[in-house]
Amino acid sequence: MMLNSSATALEPSPVLIVGSVAFDSVETPLGREENVLGGAAVYASVSASFFAPVQIVGVVGTDFPKEHVEFLRARGIDTEGLQVAEGKTFRWSGYYDYDLNQAHTRQTDLNVFADFHPRLPESYRDARIVFLANIDPDLQLEVLEQVRDPRLVVCDTMNFWIERKPERLREVLRRVNLVFMNDAEARQFCGTFSLLRAARDLLAMGPDGVIIKKGEHGALLFTKGKHFSAPSYLLEQVADPTGAGDTFAGGFVGYLAYTGDLSEANLRKATVYGSVMASFNIQDFSLNRLRTLTQEEIAARYEEFKEIAFFEAISASGETA
Amino acid sequence: MMLNSSATALEPSPVLIVGSVAFDSVETPLGREENVLGGAAVYASVSASFFAPVQIVGVVGTDFPKEHVEFLRARGIDTEGLQVAEGKTFRWSGYYDYDLNQAHTRQTDLNVFADFHPRLPESYRDARIVFLANIDPDLQLEVLEQVRDPRLVVCDTMNFWIERKPERLREVLRRVNLVFMNDAEARQFCGTFSLLRAARDLLAMGPDGVIIKKGEHGALLFTKGKHFSAPSYLLEQVADPTGAGDTFAGGFVGYLAYTGDLSEANLRKATVYGSVMASFNIQDFSLNRLRTLTQEEIAARYEEFKEIAFFEAISASGETA
């Protein structure tokens, strides 16, 4: 799917985000939290909400407390698409060792998420920007059947779907503008160790852009014939890496929705804003750090990223524009 | 050891480089080479020679062919400090899997390197810039006893010395301006997973700057209260990563010698020039790529690094200067 080159400037639009809503139990070298708010759609939505209005689609059980819904609403997130199903909310339990790039799952209870089919409220179907968080590619395709005229569709995925539904994932890739993968997933899906080759392969499958997340090593943005390397933000301590990739994606799509600018130069800035949001999120468990985060802190850290990456001014002829 | 702040501009000076000279037998997924020219001092010297005159100190056996010495001389490297000892030249044999960050040693024959003690020719002892490549810290200290008034001393090391001679390595660190380590070495030496903490610990031991090499993930430069993240250069294929760190170091010190500018802003550029040189070196076995490398290619790749890392102009107030 090609970005319509005449439409790289978008009208302001809410971001539609579809994915999991969960209770997480997480143990890291810095502590342990039980049954805290999590899920890809939640991390991405809260992160995006710092930049633009958000419409969330997901499913929770009857055990999902009102306070979590109120938290989302207080952040300007439209929760009309949050389905409530008879049963328990999706639960994930896992731990991280000192190598915080690798989550180890202890237990997954899909609960109501097992029978989830995204149903978009009528008011969501005109969404211009859609983020399909990591869910079954068949469900991602169901979402695309329901949106009328999206201008920017972004998807994430994971090794589970790469192994079990590679053909359906390919179908998703034919229909999205941008795809997120982490480095291991990109290598696995494309069968090559070279991230440059993997990105070229992914671009050939349909998307106009590929964002490869490298955890503590930053992120790479690939577009046709170009790439950008965003630095990581070094922290003395990472409390909990859960949701880092989703927070990254939320900041990325939120910034694009806010600016309405889909140029390559602005995709680079979006990659950095995604990195900024992820760098905050991992400083505390669950979404705790995002609960107190301010626009001033986001702006200050973005400046830090500029400072960290700068080594020489690029000529004013705008070769990167 | 503090850089003399009034002396951040140096007179043009050759770079003195001390380290191993070797024959390497290397196997990688892309091929195999037997008994090819290698050694940290050779990689670093050839790399530095693209920027400044070099004086090399090392030892070879009587089996070391004239053509290698002639190659070094043709690159403007002073070989008066290349000692010839009765016996065979140091030999290293190893292989790399697809994870090219990790060398696996098959065999090490120290040969004449076992009894090596660096002896600086009189003409070397006024060197202003000294690079102590990865050798026994006791030998690194012997070099420092012989140079009269160095203005910039840079050292490298490896896990072998971190494990066996940590106290002597600390003594070296008290006496150098800049230290290179890779990420695993910095974590091991400082006993922390956080590279930020490791760098702070290393700075507290004496150096004014710490350069942490992260292989395919680029490099980090730490100075007091600041750090810089240099992107890596993505290649479709890496032929042979042997010598990447030494080539990096050679480009780094060579660029500093060429510019005579030891400001933090220029250390950032040196980090990128080091990355540029390493990115070329790994494209072929041994020093083959450096044999044909041109200044134009170096300049063009440096521009590519600028393009890869750029996302937003930094204000003209020069906050990074």
Walk me through what this model shows.
- With 321 residues, chain A is α/β, with parallel strands linked by helices.
- Chain A has one domain (13-232, 240-309): UDP-N-acetylmuramoyl-L-alanine:D-glutamate ligase, CATH 3.40.1190.20.
- Chain A contains eleven helices and 13 strands.
- Chain A has helices at residues 40-48, 66-74, 137-146, 159-164, 166-174, 183-190, 195-204, 244-259, 264-281, 288-292, 295-309, and strands spanning 15-18, 22-28, 31-38, 54-61, 77-85, 90-96, 103-109, 129-132, 152-155, 178-182, 209-213, 219-223, 226-230.
- In chain A, strands 5-4-1-8-9-10-11-12-13 form a nine-stranded mixed beta sheet, sandwiched between helices. The first copy, chain A, has a four-stranded mixed beta sheet with strand order 3-2-6-7.
- In chain A, a hairpin with a 6-residue loop joins strand 6 and strand 7 (103-109).
- In chain A, helix 1 runs parallel beside helix 8 (244-259) and helix 8 (244-259) crosses helix 9 (264-281).
- The longest helix of chain A is centred in the C-terminal third of the chain and has 18 residues, at 264-281.
- The A-B interface holds A 98-99, 193-197, 214, 217-218, 220, 226-232, 234-237, 265, 268-269, 271-272, 306-314, 319-320 and B 98-99, 193-197, 214, 217-218, 220, 226-232, 234-237, 265, 268-269, 271-272, 305-314, 319-320.
